[in-house]
Backbone:
């Protein structure tokens, strides 16, 4: 008994450090006033984005410690899908991977009055709950668009890039869809929404586009003037940098605007599902706390806003998101993308 | 079953039978709706699954000798449109999984090209419905068979079927309630002619033996005919017995009068007191018999006339006067004075004068008979909403006799053994009054000894 207890302590001590095979980027422990339970969250969102939410949550629920682990969406998937890592919540912007977790039986069902109030497109199977709606935008550097207005449709962007290769060669950035789940999601949705996506990829490839695995790096490079524009950046990240970073601008497309929903689910392995539910309710009601939106730049679920913008195409949760996760489909898609973007 | 229903009410029997029928029909309705709707929902899922599998199979192609698949977006999105069910798929070449869920079970025997094989099994902790189809894809020189399996959990189906069950239950229950209410109404209305007939027969007076003419449904016609037939026989039989009594009374009275006259003559001739006493006893007995015979005749006459009452306009005041005058000689014999308190004006009434005379005469005769010598009898006629003819004597009253019993045939007061009487007088008066829609009231005289008998007639 004592030995078992001892080994449990060791396991607990070790888990944050050697979480198994999946890679974590960073982690942070938020101690509460009463330290009764530890809510373990694995998330793709940066700490500085999410911290205000955790602190406010702990103010309301002072018994819950929060351990916040940041991983990429693919590593998050690996942790839960392959390694059965113990987390109470999984928060990700990769809607397709979250859907796969739920579809394949790795998520728990949770129903509360709050989740019932969510619009039907903001949840799936009562297992995945969206709490933000974040458009994929283009971020531009003012420096490169002093004399002309920035393009607002993909066709305009293609024309501009085609016409002025000297101005943009090496100065266009986008997600490397092989390394970023969000990038892959945006790319596949683009390919569904418009035929010009492949032409745009071709053009960006010809301009020797730089490939990134995170929005943050892309925005930094735009701010530094290394990039003239970054295509398909998560809007909330761009918005959060806007105030502190002069010289960048956010251009939402008007032909169509993929809107990604940041979702949360309770993994099957959750140790404290009750507290997970509290956090889900808290997240689903983000729109009742405008100060948090201001602090985090995470736009909460807002039906009216989506309906007002006719270009907005919220990505729907559902089994169709599994299509681009199909091994063959993904192979084909990535191969086509690579051959377009890398034209050596 | 029948033995329970032999007794008891037809309505209950009808209601229970209709109730059972309604329950059976409602249950059948519920089961059929659920089965049909469940079948339809399940077929819908099968059709979508088949369409999904077909669209996947259509996207198979061969690329430099190997088989590839461009999984169509619609193949899985169509499965997500109706419900939020989990979706699994698998594409196999032989035992090899080309893509999809490698552990998704596939049929052991490969379906033929035109076949679509559906099956239901548990997968990843939930029941799934799966479809399997086979396509041949040509890879260069040869044909390769590829199987596509698409599976979906059945939560949406379960939700639909539970919704259908709720609806079917509600409709079935509603149907049952309405049917039950209607069957209660049907039982009620089916029995209403019977009730109507029963009521019309019950409402009749005790002597009303006319045929039943209530409108009745054809099913009741034999019963009505039988009843009418029975009543006509009864009427004939009653009339015969009345006739017989009247005839008998008549035949007895005439010889009795002769015998009495002879006895009177003989009494005058007899000298011995004991002989005279015996003869007086005889005369008294003859009187009693003669009186009884007279009243039996009266009664028969009254019965006959009330059965077919013929009315004319009369004056009750004058009628009462006449009756009093007719009986004053009888009263004089006992030194009884008949006092009259009768309004001077006309009291119009519709009725049979002979019957009314008879009734009044019987009451007044009774009063004279039971009054002591040298006393007064008051005959009073009052008018309010009814006419009330009261005869008040100073006789011995009715003692402790039950007053209600007095009007029945041959009933007499408990204190009158010493006086000749048949007990028919009040009966006759009662029948007459009732034939005129009136009533009779018998009470002890409020102002001292004696009785008060009132005949009450409605004012026409």
Residues:
């Amino acid at each position: 008994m004592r030995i078992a207890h001892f080994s449990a302590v060791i396991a607990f001590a070790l888990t944050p450090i050697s979480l198994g095979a999946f890679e974590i980027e960073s982690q942070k422990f938020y101690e509460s006033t009463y330290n009764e339970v530890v809510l373990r969250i694995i998330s793709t969102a940066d700490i500085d984005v999410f911290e205000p939410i955790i602190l406010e949550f702990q103010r309301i629920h002072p018994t819950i410690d929060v351990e916040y682990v940041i991983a990429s969406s693919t590593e998050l998937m690996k942790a839960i899908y392959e390694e059965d890592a113990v987390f109470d919540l999984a928060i990700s912007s990769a809607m397709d991977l979250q859907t796969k977790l739920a579809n394949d039986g790795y998520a728990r069902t949770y129903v509360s009055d709050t989740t019932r109030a969510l619009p039907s497109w903001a949840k799936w199977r009562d297992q995945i709950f969206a709490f933000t709606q974040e458009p994929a935008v283009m971020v531009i550097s003012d420096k490169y668009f002093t004399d002309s207005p920035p393009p607002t449709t993909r066709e305009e962007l293609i024309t501009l890039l085609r016409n002025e290769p000297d101005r943009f060669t090496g100065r266009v950035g986008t997600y490397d869809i092989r390394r970023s789940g969000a990038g892959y999601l945006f790319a596949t949705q683009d390919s569904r929404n418009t035929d010009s996506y492949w032409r745009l990829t071709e053009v960006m490839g010809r301009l020797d586009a730089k490939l990134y695995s995170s929005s943050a790096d892309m925005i930094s490079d735009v701010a530094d003037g290394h990039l003239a524009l970054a295509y398909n950046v998560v809007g909330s990240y761009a918005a959060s940098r806007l105030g502190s970073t002069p010289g960048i601008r956010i251009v939402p497309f008007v032909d169509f605007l993929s809107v990604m929903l940041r979702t949360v689910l309770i993994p099957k392995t959750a140790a404290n599902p009750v507290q997970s539910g509290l956090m889900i309710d808290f997240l689903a009601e983000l729109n009742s706390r405008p100060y948090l939106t201001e602090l985090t730049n995470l736009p909460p679920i807002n039906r009216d806003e989506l309906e007002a913008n006719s270009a907005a195409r919220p990505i729907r949760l559902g089994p169709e998101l599994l299509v681009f996760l199909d091994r063959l489909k993904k192979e084909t898609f990535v191969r086509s993308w690579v051959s377009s973007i890398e034209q050596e | 079953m029948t033995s329970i229903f032999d007794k008891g009410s037809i309505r209950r029997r009808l209601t229970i039978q209709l109730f059972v029928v309604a329950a059976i029909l409602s249950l059948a309705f519920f089961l059929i709706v659920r089965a049909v709707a469940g079948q339809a929902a399940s077929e819908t899922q099968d059709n979508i699954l088949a369409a999904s599998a077909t669209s996947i199979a259509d996207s198979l192609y061969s690329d430099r000798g190997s088989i590839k698949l461009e999984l169509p977006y619609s193949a899985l999105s169509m499965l997500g449109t109706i419900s939020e069910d989990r979706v699994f798929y698998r594409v196999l070449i032989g035992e090899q999984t080309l893509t999809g869920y490698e552990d998704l079970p596939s049929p052991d025997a490969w379906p033929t090209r035109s076949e679509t094989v559906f099956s239901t099994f548990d997968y990843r902790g939930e029941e799934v419905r799966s479809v399997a189809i086979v396509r041949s894809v040509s890879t260069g020189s040869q044909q390769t068979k590829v199987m596509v399996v698409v599976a979906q959990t059945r939560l949406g189906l379960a939700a639909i079927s539970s919704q259908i069950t709720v609806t079917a239950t509600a409709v079935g229950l509603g149907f049952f309630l309405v049917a039950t209410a209607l069957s209660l109404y049907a039982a009620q209305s089916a029995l209403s002619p019977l009730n109507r007939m029963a009521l019309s027969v019950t409402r009749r007076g005790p002597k009303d033996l006319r045929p039943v003419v209530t409108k009745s449904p054809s099913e009741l016609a034999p019963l009505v005919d039988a009843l009418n037939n029975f009543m006509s026989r009864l009427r004939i039989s009653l009339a015969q017995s009345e006739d017989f009594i009247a005839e008998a009374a008549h035949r007895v009275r005439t010889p009795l009068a002769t015998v009495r006259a002879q006895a009177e003559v003989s009494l005058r001739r007899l000298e011995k007191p004991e002989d005279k006493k015996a003869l007086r006893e005889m005369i008294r007995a003859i009187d009693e018999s003669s009186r009884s015979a007279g009243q039996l005749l009266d009664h028969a006459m009254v019965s006959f006339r009330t059965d077919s009452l013929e009315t004319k306009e009369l004056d009750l005041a004058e009628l009462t006067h006449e009756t009093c005058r007719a009986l004053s000689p009888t009263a004089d014999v006992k030194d009884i004075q008949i006092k009259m308190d009768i309004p001077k004006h006309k009291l119009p009434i519709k009725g049979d004068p002979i019957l009314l005379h008879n009734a009044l005469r019987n009451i007044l005769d009774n009063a004279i008979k039971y009054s002591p010598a040298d006393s007064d009898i008051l005959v009073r006629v009052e008018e309010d909403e009814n006419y009330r003819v009261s005869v008040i004597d100073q006789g011995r009253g009715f003692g402790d006799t039950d007053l209600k019993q007095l009007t029945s045939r041959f009933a007499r007061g408990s204190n009158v053994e010493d006086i000749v009487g048949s007990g028919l007088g009040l009966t006759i008066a009662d029948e007459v009054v009732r034939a005129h829609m009136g009533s009779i009231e018998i009470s002890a005289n409020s102002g001292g000894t004696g009785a008060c008998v009132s005949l009450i007639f409605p004012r026409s």
The mean pLDDT of chain B is 84. The two ends of chain B are 57 Å apart (CA to CA). The longest strand of chain B covers residues 126-139.
